[in-house]
Amino acid sequence: MTAPASWAIRTELTPTAGRKPRPKDAELVFGRVFTDHMAIADWTEDAGWTDPRVVPYGNFSLDPASAVFHYGQEIFDGMKAFRAVDGRVQIFRADRHCRRLAEGAARLCMPAVDPALTLALVRGLVGTDRDWVPSAPETSLYLRPTLIATEPFLGVRPSKRYIFFIIASPVGAYHGAGFSPARIWIEDRYVRAAPGGLGAVKAGANYVASLMAAEEAKKRGYDQVLWTDAVEHKHLEEVGTMNLCAVIGEELITPALDGTILGGVTRDSVLTLARAWGIKATERSIAIDELLAAQRDGSLREVFGCGTAAVITPVGELGWKGENLIVNGGKPGELARRLFTAITDIQYGRAPDTHGWMTAV
Ligand SMILES: *Cc1c(COP(=O)(O)O)cnc(C)c1O
Predict the structure, then answer these.
(1) What ligand 1 atom has the least distance to the C-alpha of 263?
(2) Second label for 322, Cα 20 to 30 Å away, from 150, 224, 252, 269?
């Protein structure tokens, strides 16, 4: 199937009477309310991608035998549209998110969604629901593109039919109560992703694999899990559903993309900015022993997570085999703050977009 040079999106508007009340910006949380529309495209073996459209938000009618319900053939992404201080609406690094979804689909034996189609649907949806992009500080419109297998067949093989859809949810300020550091449990029993597995793609399957460890960590009083490698539980991988960064001495370190780690767009932005500021930023493996030694000799300055939802989450405390390690006196680090400010300033148009990261809608 050859992709058209540009995708025309059909739009079917929700009648005024069917529109939902919009929550006040101050009442927004994460992922609970959705806008009036959604974007959809269908894929079949014969026709490829067809009928890309923006339609009223609503339920799907799916055959209970649809492959996604049985074997989890599903991949998603997450990106945000922001209302800049001058009122413009723009999406952060849309090209990267669209490309990641297309590349990840292959690992799950799904057809890639042409990045140009994803972008056209994102623009169509955000343009239609522009009024839903909130404007209070640190709020945004979260976009969730999702690809699911819909062939009604219980045989174990890749589906021959798919639905691609995008929903949008206005979300509140993540760091509402201040830039408060998280308490993190370093996991040495459960595994999120193993070499050769799905760790490098945004598959729903990775998330269900992580739930039990996260629940147990919460019972112990921690906010999230720091995943260690599946083989020896000696190297640090990701923190919850964020990429991990540590500052040891003058070096910013993040685990290399070795196949078990998701290549975050925020991670890439952090590396790009740090390097532009002349900071040594290294992608390599970090052993727990190195982190412990750095904490003991005082060279461990910061630990933080990075991802679309929170941008940067400082880590104030690490639990490891019953011991509690305090990072930077339990306070957010200087680089974490600087990165958070720099990235959000670009997102909200408070600083010039020197890296070409924003796509106007
Ligand atoms: C989405 C995700 C991240 C962060 O990626 P961003 O593109 O920065 O949002 C990190 N780790 C995992 C496991 C993820 O699913």
Answers:
(1) 5
(2) 252
Q: Pairing state of beta strands 48-56 and 358-360? A: unpaired
* pTM beyond cutoff 0.90: yes
C-alpha 93 to ligand 1 mean position (Å) = 13
- Expressed in angstroms and rounded, the spacing between residue 78 Cα and the centre of ligand 1 is 8
Q: Which residues line ligand 1 (CB under 6 A)?
A: 78, 202, 238, 241-243, 262, 264-267, 307-308
- Cα gap 145→275, rounded to integer Å: 30
283's CB contacts (< 8 A; 6+ apart) are: 253, 254, 255, 256, 257, 271
What pLDDT shows up at residue 322?
Answer: 84
- Statement: residue 321 has pLDDT above 70: yes
pLDDT tens digits, 168-211: 999 998 887 678 999 999 999 999 999 999 999 999 999 999 99
**Residue 175 has what pLDDT?**
82
pLDDT at 45 over 70: yes
Ligand 1: distance of its center to the CA of 17 in Å? 37
